[in-house]
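Q: My collaborator sent me two sequences in one message, no labels, and asked for predicted structures for both. Can we handle them in order? The first one she listed is below.
A: Yes, handling them in the order given. First sequence, followed by its structure tokens:
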Amino acid sequence: MAVFRIGAILGLLLTGVWFPALQSREGYEGTQSNGLPLRGAVEHSGILIGTAIRPQRLSEPAYAATLSREFNLVEPEDAMKWESVHPAQDQFDFSQADRAADFAAEHRMKLRGHTLVWHHQLSPWLTERRRSPDQLALVLKTHIQTVAGHYRGRVLAWDVVNEAFAEDGTGNLKNTIWYNQPGIGFAGQGTAYIEQCFRWAHEADPQALLFYNDAEAEAINPKSNAIYAMVRDFKRRAVPIDGVGLQMHITHLHSDTLSIARNIERITSLGLQVHITEMDVAVPVDTAGNATTEDLQHQAEIYRDIAAACLRYPGCTAIQTWGFTDKYSWIGSHSRHRQGAALLFDHDYRPKPSYQALRDALQKRH
């Protein structure tokens, strides 16, 4: 292990991945941590360690330095969503998403695409006019194939369809613009519309890995059962699907790790990959945004345990957090600032106990 660490550190220094060591330290003194960065810890393990990013923050030295040093996989939080890349029916704007793609290429990172089909964050031109299913199908096909085609050869994996199943405990599909309001011609036919989206995406980029991504389906429950049934059917019929994304937004410092592990096992046993795509672990915070030491330690244990559950199965090939610094986490505004401190680095880019716990779990993969 000592030999590996010395060799890996020298390699990181020579390639520039150990970014702060090669740059002015002004503005990000708190980003260094003892030992290998996360991407160094997984260098020979076959797993990707990633994070969702906001391309407009890449001009901030601390943000860019921490990102490039620690991660080998990036995914734009919003820059590839419909409202960002398709602002008018005859207009596409890839400027922000391209910025993320260029940063990834420059720093030898893989790129995940998120997301081609979702019923939120749609452009007004799409939602303010009524269209027939045939018209809407053409609009959606054009969107999928234009966006996926633009990044052909650059994106490792796409979240093709995001959050199509309801959170009501029934395992049913949501009523959405794509399914049945008015839908793209498959209303009442179960997951047929999702299948069509995967086929369009595969046509646009046959080399990209194609994922179905959802929330609250990490453990075994009616929703994850419905997703499992869908992907098992897709695999049986050779629908082009490569994996399932488990978002892993954890609240109330509780996760059923054993059930999550069983879910990962059954998905990967189909020959599909699992990516943990949006992990964060929200904790209670005071009015200043501070969490207790005890809660931060409990948070660290959850990060460690979820990583260990993933690493148990070779088919679980990526662990990705939804952002990496509490400075820009969505948890505060989402919870009306009752929760926060959900990520690996604090507001000043200092690594937290969760960072050390995750790194320790990753290093055990060697």
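Q: And the one she listed second?
A: Here it is, processed independently of the first:
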Amino acid sequence: MFFEDLSAFIAVAERGSFSRAAVELCIAQSALSKRVRRLEQRTGAVLLERRARGVVLTPVGEAFLQRALALVDEANYLERHLSSAIQVPAGEVSVAFPRRSAGLMAPRIVERCRLEIPRVRLNLLEGTAANVHGWMVRGEADVGLTYNADLGTGFRVLPFMSERLVLFSSPGLAHQHFGLEGPPRVCSVQDLARLPLILPRKPDVIRVLVERLAAGHGFRPNIVFEADGLSTIRGMVEYGQGMALLSLSTSWNYSVEQGRLVSIPFSSPLVSWKLHLAHSLRAEGSAAVSRVFDIVRREAMALLDAGAWPCAERLLPESGLGQKDDGR
């Protein structure tokens, strides 16, 4: 009853009228007036001043309104999340992975979901960073690991880890452009104006990052070819047709170990990309989506701690709680 009275008071205060508030709440005006009077009697203060053309808040009412709003919001939050927690998770949940993380993550998540939430059916999607972003935005994936945090409204997005990017080149092309014996020790952002780059098409996160960095330094990157497949790009780079940017903890390391490629670090820490954990809030009461997201978060943290991404820097706190969402 107390929260019903609070809600009635808030409705009248925000609309400045008992009649308008009664219409929107679909209750009789007399019942609404009774609730507000009961609240005033309980608090021992006059909260609303009745006038011929409506009502206005008294000074005490203005202060009380802010407390009432916070209290009702908190009660609604507790009710919503408690009902989600006690539901038996069931149904289908789609999880999207970038290709470089899918092999690491998918088996562990499938196994954990089978043990903890057996009534949930997983639909696993694997693709490029641009694919994952598109699936999330179009509502085709409920949970995702994404390098592009710009998902718009309706998502909870947590930064998970950051990785420095390096320049990959064939040994011959590196020697040709840097003029050194052996692989060069470091590369600058400004070098991207002259080095022949093979980059994915927009809106790939690396392509966007390179163009933003270049614009910030007043030049345009020297892009000689666009290709969306990492295998295609790696083959072209090994063949000496250009250079590419990616992080060290990838399958490209094998080509470096075999001597087909060299990896050149950048002098600027700005040349890095972030992996985010995201899930849709469109079905906020979905216990299945919430549980799958929690499993994805826990398994990602375990893999990071085990060295699956050896050059990565953790961005998400240990529990994943207390990290403020970015407003999505």
